[in-house]
Amino acid sequence: MADPARLRVGVLVSGRGSNLEAIVQAAEAGRLGAVVAVVISDRPAARALDIARAHGIEALALEPADHPGRAAHEKALIGALEERRIGLVCLAGYMRLLSGSFVKRFEARLLNIHPSLLPAFPGLHPQRRALRHGVRVSGATVHFVDEGTDTGPIVLQAVVPVEPADTEETLAARILAEEHRIYPEAIRLFAAGRLSIQGRVVEIREAS
Ligand code: GRF
Predict the structure, then answer these.
(1) Which candidate, 10, 24, 62, 185, has a CA 20 to 30 Å from the CA of 41?
(2) What is the pTM of this model?
(3) CB of 115 sitting under 6 A from ligand 1
C-alpha cells in the first residue's frame, strides 16, 4: 500500500516529457522518496501524458480552451492538484506562464527546470542564445518558481561545455542529459526536507 506520509508530486507538462520520464524512473527505483501522483498537461496530445499512462500514473489534460479564461483554467488546475493532496508541483516543460496567485498558492513547493545556467538566458530558446552569445559553458538549473520568469531561488545546477561544433540541437542534448540527473536529485532533497529558502539562496542541509 502507498505510504500516506510520502510526499505526493504533481508534474505539469506540455510536450515531450523526457524530464517527467527521468523523475518517474527515479521514483520507481526508490530514489525519489516521493510518489508521482498525477501528471497534468495543457495539451491533450502531449507525449508526456502517454509516458505517465505507461507507468500507471494518472494523466490529466486540462485545456485552456475548455475554460472561459486564464483564471478559470488555473482554478481548475489548482483544484486538481489540491484534490490529490499534492505537496510539490514540478514544472517539466510546461509552456504556460503561471499567475502570481498560482505561484503564491504553491510558494516554496513549486520547482522548475531550465536549460541554462541561470541567471543567464532566462525565457525562450536559451540554448540558441547561449551559442550566439559565445559562452564556453552552459548547463541546467533547477529552481523554485517565483513571480518572475526563471528568476526564483536556485536549488541545483549542472555545467556542460559548449563545443565549437555545437548546434542548438547538440548543445540541448548535452544539457538535457544533465537535466535528467539533477531534477530527480532536487526532488529527492525536497522530499527529504533538506531544502530551505533564505532570501534568494537555497540552503541544502546535510543528510541526518
Ligand atoms: C527541457 O529542456 C526543460 O528544461 C525545459 O523544457 C524542456 C522540456 O523537455 N523547461 P521535456 O518535455 O522534459 O523532454
Answers:
(1) 185
(2) 0.97
(3) yes
